[in-house]
């Protein structure tokens, strides 16, 4: 762009650009975005990056401390921890994104219906959401995961369903605020159909906090997947997942402490990245902050 | 005020009914027949039918629900499929351990989180604020079971200061009890104080921006008295509400840390029940936790009105 050559414009920048500028000025947020990008790249490129086969056991290399060949050491079956860590990013990323997608796919329509139509629809949906919210997230996810059976897919369903009510409640609140705006009354006055009003006007104007919450929810979902896998309810062996690696590692704290350091650090970094990104997005999108 | 509490109580009833329906329907998600697991080798049709009848598994679902909820209302959460012990009795045995853990963790959280939040808000933009924020963000991002593992590595494996396991009941051996409870309550307390710090800071910042604080400052009141007398008291409203709502995080934390430190509490009972497919226990636990949460929500709403006199009229 050749902004320099143009005369200074009196027109204020569009809100979206202002939000982007605010986001880029926030160093913590940019750091979060970088961590998230690295995390996604690792998950996608795991086969290219991993020095060894993550499933290949080697009984000559059981619980070897970090070395030049195995940077993060080997586990109780002689598998390379770095390779398992890189592949484990896939389970975490999948769990984070898919379970939040499930939560959004159910929660946002429920919130839209509830908030826009009000009345008995709102009454019924709100009670259901409240009942779901009244069970602590992790307990609900564990119970659902337990009853559905232990697997990564079921863990994602359980986490998604447990996170859903937050989105329903948030969307409903946003819709109630947007609904009071004049342009919605205008759209109604000229007889636009409800579906059109909701999708064209209400949803876009209610979206910013939902995006922020979704980012933070990915962080929560990654921890939840790791927690379920740590308890044995998520990714099943021998497939690598950070939570299940920690589950095994806790049996060898005396003999092989390195087994438990790196998977936890990886979870911590990924979650921190999404939390920084979410906080940054909130600060950038919320005009009240700052 | 009383009518407000009454209205909130009434609203809690449909929620509780729905919670019980959800809890009950959990078992319908279960793959496989619990009776088969229960019967073990003994799989003759008569034994299966007898077991089905014993646990009312041969009735239609709504009848099963009514039977179950009728029992629940009489304080009967059913019988553990594994130990044949009443679920209520099992919960009664395990709950005190987790309540002790929760109280210790909450004490740590309040002692760390609230002062840190107030300090960060009054020194917004300084190194103190930055440090508190970095710590709090790390606190909510660190997986609690990993923090537990790290603590065991440092304090138990390396330094031999604290035991990694070996829980003893409080009344039998208080010293050993506190030694085993210290690390787990620090783990949960760390996560809680992180949430608490962030919310305290937010609430304090919102109050410090308000006009009456500027007025108090303009009148020449000194900064500490403004902060403590005027700002903190008003920031307390959202903080108290949040503290009751941290219950969910507390239970989630207890489930994981009790597993790491092998503390035979409520959280460990949930996980054990999940693995032995003892769904009467899982149901009982979920129902208990959810009801407690609904009541705490109610308490939060009531406290909100009690602390904030402005809401009393017309609330």
From TrEMBL, chain A:
Record membrane topology: Multi-pass membrane protein
GO CC, any one term: plasma membrane
Highest taxon, organism lineage: Bacteria
One GO-annotated biological process of the protein: transmembrane transport
SUPFAM superfamilies the record matches: MetI-like
PROSITE patterns: ABC_TM1
Subcellular location per the Swiss-Prot or TrEMBL entry: Cell membrane
Keyword field: Cell membrane, Membrane, Transmembrane, Transmembrane helix, Transport
Residues of the ABC transmembrane type-1 domain: 89-278
Coiled-coil region: none
Principal subcellular localisation of the protein: membrane
Residues passing through the membrane, by range: 28-50, 93-116, 128-148, 154-171, 202-224, 258-278
Family under the similarity heading: Belongs to the binding-protein-dependent transport system permease family.
Protein's name according to its UniProt entry: ABC transporter permease
UniProtKB/TrEMBL annotation, chain B:
InterPro entries: BPD_transp_1_N, MetI-like, MetI-like_sf
Keyword Transmembrane in annotation: yes
Cell location: Cell membrane
CDD domains: TM_PBP2 (cd06261)
Domain ABC transmembrane type-1 per the UniProt entry, residue ranges: 95-304
Main location as per UniProt: membrane
One Gene Ontology molecular-function label: dipeptide transmembrane transporter activity
Keywords: Cell membrane, Membrane, Transmembrane, Transmembrane helix, Transport
Topological category with respect to the lipid bilayer: Multi-pass membrane protein
Transmembrane segments: 101-122, 134-157, 177-196, 235-261, 281-307
Similarity annotation: Belongs to the binding-protein-dependent transport system permease family.
PANTHER family: DIPEPTIDE TRANSPORT SYSTEM PERMEASE PROTEIN DPPB-RELATED
Protein name: ABC transporter permease
Organism, scientific name: Lichenibacterium ramalinae
